[in-house]
Every structure is written in structure tokens, then in C-alpha cells.
Amino acid sequence: MNFLKRIRRLLRNRSGVAMVEFAIGAPFLLTAGLWGTEIANYALVNMKVSQLAEHIADNASRIGDTSTLQNRRIYESDINDVIYGAQIQGGKLNLYDYGRVIISSLETDRATTNQYIHWQRCRGLKTYASPYGTEGQNLGTAGMGPAGEQVTAEPGDAVIFVELSYTYQPLVSAQFLGSLDIYSVASFTVRDNRDLSQIYQRDAGSPDPVQGCNLHTGDAKIGTDGTFG
User: Fold this and answer.
1) Helix, strand, or coil (residue 83)
2) Contact, 181 vs 167, CB < 8 A?
3) Is the dihedral of CA 22, 27, 32, 38 positive or negative?
4) Among the residues of the chain, which ranges form H helices?
5) What number of H helices and E strands is found in the chain?
6) For residues 229 and 219, what is the distance between their CA atoms, to the nearest angstrom?
7) How many CA atoms lie within 13 A of 63 on its CB side?
8) Is 25 exposed, middle or buried (0-12, 13-18, 19+ CB in 10 A)?
9) Helix (H, G, I), strand (E, B), or coil: what is residue 104?
10) Sequence-distant (≥ 6) Cβ neighbours of residue 46 within 8 angstroms
């Protein structure tokens, strides 16, 4: 009789129904939660990349020696500081391992009054070529930037134009969003009166490395001698 009572009690028991429903719905709930987390992280990385482009352009527009006797000179070491600073600001993005930064100095050619790219510096392992021009290229009157939104430099002045291309690194899995490229541009007019003739070396006998656009180099560390590799 006790055995039959236990069987009847078990048949009337509904406490396991919620567990079954949870077991069925949990995979869908977990997938939706992880997908939402990946979307949120992608939006956050987009914002960081945009801010980094602005910081690089802003910082590059401020560099140079301060002198009351001559226009402000800029040095390769100054540009290296800006590039390395962006790597630090990028933190876990590993900016130059998964992206590429192109810094251009947009100026006005005195002879033709056309816009041209006087110098250009790059860093990053990612394969990316600027659609707006390369060092020394004459741009006519168009300037740099997306169609209809180009920026131009005034005669005797310069505009620092920065392009940042970055391959998004998934937080959870590439199955949610796939491989996505994030792209951002920013520009700032150079502060003060800058010597636009060239980029100088502080010590010609021991020159600082030049971040040429023919190179594809990833994240780096400051060496024991204080140089940026």
C-alpha cells in the first residue's frame, strides 16, 4: 500500500516541470545574452576607436618645440611619442597588432596653391591603404576626407588628418558578428606657427626611428634606452 501511495504522489508531483522548461529555454536565453554582450562590446570598441583617432589628431597638432625666435619645429621623436601614446590609450585593443594608423600633414603648395600631403607617418600590422592619398601627392583643391566632407589647409598652415582602421576582436565569439572592420577619421588644424619645411631629428648621429608607411609594425615597448621601436 505504501508503495502505491508513493507512485500516486509521484504522478501528481509537478515540481520538475519548471526544471524541464528551464533546461529547454536556457540555451536560447544564454545565446541571446551572449549576443547582446557582443553587440554592446562592439559599440564600445567603436567609440574607443573614434576617440583614439581624435586624440591622435589633436596631440599631433600640438607637438613641437616652443620658441619665441622661430616657428615651432617638430621632430621624429615627437611623432613617435604621439604614436606610442595612442597604443597606451588603446589598452587591451592592441591597436597596432589589429589595426593601422595613418597620420598625414595636409598643407597648401605655395607654387600651385593646391592641397598636398607633405608628410605621412603610419603604424600597424593591418593591411590598409589610405583612399585619400600618399605622402607627396598633389590633391588639387579637393583636400582630404569623405566626398562632400573634405578638409583643406589654409596657405601657410597645416591640418593633421588621421585615419584609423581596426579589425574588431570578438569578446565572446566570432560566430555572433563575424569579422568586422572599424574605421574612423579625425582632423585638427595645427596649433601655433609650425615650421612646415621638414620633420627634424634631435640627434643626427643617433636618429629616432621613422614610422614610414612602407612598414607594417605592431605594438611596441619603450626600450631601456628610452627609444621607441
Assistant:
1) helix
2) yes
3) positive
4) 2-12, 17-60, 76-90, 95-98, 174-177
5) 5, 5
6) 9
7) 23
8) exposed
9) strand
10) 182
Q: In a structure prediction context, what are the per-residue pLDDT tens digits for the chain, which is 229 residues long?
A: 677 888 788 777 766 566 667 777 788 888 888 889 999 999 999 999 999 999 999 999 999 877 666 788 999 999 999 999 999 999 999 999 999 999 999 999 988 899 999 999 999 999 999 999 999 999 999 999 999 899 999 999 999 999 999 999 999 888 888 889 999 999 999 988 899 999 999 998 999 999 999 999 999 876 555 555 6
pTM of the model: 0.86
**CA 35 to each of CA 32, 41, 49, 129: distance values in angstroms, whole numbers, following the listed order:** 5, 10, 21, 32
C-alpha cell of 44?
A: 564600445
